[in-house]
Amino acid sequence: MSTVQRLQEETYDVLVVGAGIGGMEAAVSLGDMGFRVLLVDREPSIGGHMYLLSKVFPTLDCASCISGTKMSSSSHHPNVTLLPYSDVQEIVKEGEGRFRADVLERPRYVDPALCTSCGQCEEVCPIIVEKENDFGLRGRKAIYIPFDTAVPKKAVVDINNCIYCLQCEKICPGNAIDFLQTQKEHRLAVGAVILAVGYDLFPAEKKAEYHYGEFDNVVTSMQMDRLLGPTRPYNAIMRNSDGKEPQNIAYALCTGSRDRSLGNPRCSQVCCMYSMKQAQLILGSLPAANVTLYYMDIRAYGKGFEEFYQQAKAMGVNFVRGKVAKIEQKESGDLEVYHEDTQGKGTLEKTTHDMVVLSVGLIPRPGIAKVFANKELKLDDAGWIQLADENRSAVVTSIDGVFVAGCATGPKDIPDSAVEAAASASECAAYLLRTRGAEGLGR
Ligand SMILES: Cc1cc2nc3c(=O)[nH]c(=O)nc-3n(C[C@H](O)[C@H](O)[C@H](O)COP(=O)(O)OP(=O)(O)OC[C@H]3O[C@@H](n4cnc5c(N)ncnc54)[C@H](O)[C@@H]3O)c2cc1C
Ligand code: SF4
Ligand code: SF4
């Protein structure tokens, strides 16, 4: 492992951890108020889950267009500094309005100042591995630019898969490749912290009866959002087993949510709506297809959601109330879906589909609590960040001066994540002014 280069102490008003839509919104809001913000993300590009999505419910606006604008304004804001590909190691509260944070920046092995993102290194690199952002639907090279609209749009070497053939170094016109780069430790003095670490996807293979990872034509909803997105891998919706366009697609809602047998009794709040969104987009691409949603209840609670549900029905999406019990695979790759017909005879039914999409739930990223060295960041019984008093504020945590934004406290959709991020920025600004006085503004 490379050695660590310790950098001189840097001072910011606020450290924002996580640069999905929640973190970016909070950082830009605080920047607009005059506070100096450091926005850290562990990935080589900012953007979180939103830029991976196709469109957003219920308006069907382009997700990557909206998040792309926010990514761009985060990177160009004079008061916001980006620190991608970095992990927060430790946060110590030293007093009111005073935190010390250690952040480790991983080496990209590419000098961002010299890389022009020409992509020639990707072309010559002989190593292909699964591309994380496409959830296994296509590959990437060991040196890669995370995606076309990445911020920063710079190459990065996946050192664990690199075989040091040096083809990239030979071809790079900017001499940007630098295998001597080391990790950098940033020591920060900040006034407040916002945690916007988002969510993870429920690992679908845990629902053994659905055989995700074993049956080729069982995919997750995130994979389907990629198949439908403007930056999609194949420019078509197709089955993994034979590349055919599916004509009879089933959705198994609540995969990994509202399921005590898997330890998650909670509703993931967005799966009903994103499944209806995908069903409508599929019918836009494949008008002759049948799309069936197997559900327990439809939770269409937000503004415009009920109308969106009715629109899906009017377009011909088939809604069947009954949780999928198990899936079996036929020799042709088609899938038999067993479900209880709870609205009809109450019998167990078996229906054949040529593709099944698992509407996976959202699960917490509890690891962030461990970085607080001398204070306890309380988590709820499911592992999401717990609010100090949910009747008083939606963004105040158990540590004074540490706030939350987006899905860090639990599943929610993009508008709610953005609203919460704005609230977090405003509570954070009030905290800084209270602890430092008005002269603390824009230090
Ligand atoms: C299949 C699917 C489809 C969806 N479709 C829609 C839709 O159509 N409309 C809608 O409103 N919502 C939709 N959603 C929900 C939407 O994805 C979320 O509301 C939104 O992404 C939440 O943003 P966030 O910033 O809170 O979290 P995230 O997008 O998860 O971002 C969190 C960021 O934090 C970073 N991070 C995490 N831990 C650390 C750490 N320790 N240190 C540094 N960085 C860290 C991550 O790398 C990431 O960049 C969908 C969800 C799924 C699963
Ligand atoms: S590292 Fe070099 S070859 Fe690769 S994208 Fe950057 S400039 Fe191009
Ligand atoms: S040195 Fe590594 S990253 Fe560069 S081309 Fe060879 S395998 Fe790919």
How would you describe the overall organization of this protein?
The chain is built from 8 helices and 24 strands. It is globular. The chain has 3 domains: 4-106 and 182-199 and 364-440, FAD/NAD(P)-binding domain, CATH 3.50.50; 108-180, Alpha-Beta Plaits, CATH 3.30.70; 202-362, FAD/NAD(P)-binding domain (3-Layer(bba) Sandwich), CATH 3.50.50. It has helices at 21-32, 63-76, 120-124, 167-171, 221-228, 271-285, 305-314, 414-436, and strands at residues 4-6, 10-17, 37-40, 55-56, 61-62, 80-83, 86-95, 98-105, 128-130, 139-141, 143-144, 156-157, 183-195, 200-201, 218-220, 248-255, 290-295, 318-321, 324-329, 335-340, 348-353, 355-360, 362-363, 402-404. Strands 1, 2, 3, 6, 7, 8, 13 and 24 form an 8-stranded mixed beta sheet that branches. Strands 15-22-16-17-18 form a 5-stranded parallel beta sheet. A 3-stranded antiparallel beta sheet has the order 19-20-21, with no helix packed on it. By secondary structure, it is of the alpha/beta class. β17 (290-295), α7 and β18 (318-321) form a beta-alpha-beta unit. α6 (271-285) runs parallel beside α7 (305-314). The longest helix has 23 residues, at 414-436. Helices cover 21% and strands 26% of the residues.
Q: How would you summarize what this structure contains?
A:
This protein has 443 residues and is an alpha/beta fold.
